[in-house]
């Protein structure tokens, strides 16, 4: 018979994989190149979908057993019926979830920083700076230098 704890090792394994993807994402965000980011995003989405399915199954089993179909219900079930091994995996899940949350927060900050840099670059390229456009309609630089030209005495 399946218990609410039956698939906790699968949930833990999925969460470990998600953390690995978040770490890969962070490494790519720290580099200048974003090559491979699309694959990581897709893989993260697949892992999250798997985790959602596993948690949904756990919640359904909890409800069937007469407990609330949420984490509080799972904790109550653990306290009343969980084995020591189940309790260890459940505790590991909470620790891993905190690690994933922190990695995701840092990745969000890195994404925000990259977006800000890109927006600044676009603003400059679009000529929306206080100094005006870099290039005129003829394609020539419109920035005037107040010094002498190089190579001219």
Automatic annotation (TrEMBL):
Listed InterPro entries: FlgN-like, FlgN-like_sf
This protein's record includes keyword RNA-binding: no
A Pfam family the protein falls into: FlgN
Residue ranges of the TM segments: none
Organism, scientific name: Herbaspirillum robiniae
Keyword match Secreted: no
Name the record gives this protein: Flagellar protein FlgN
SUPFAM superfamilies in alphabetical order: FlgN-like
Function: Required for the efficient initiation of filament assembly.
Keywords tagged on the record: Bacterial flagellum biogenesis, Cell projection, Cilium, Flagellum
Family designation: Belongs to the FlgN family.
Entry superkingdom: Bacteria
Signal peptide positions (record): none
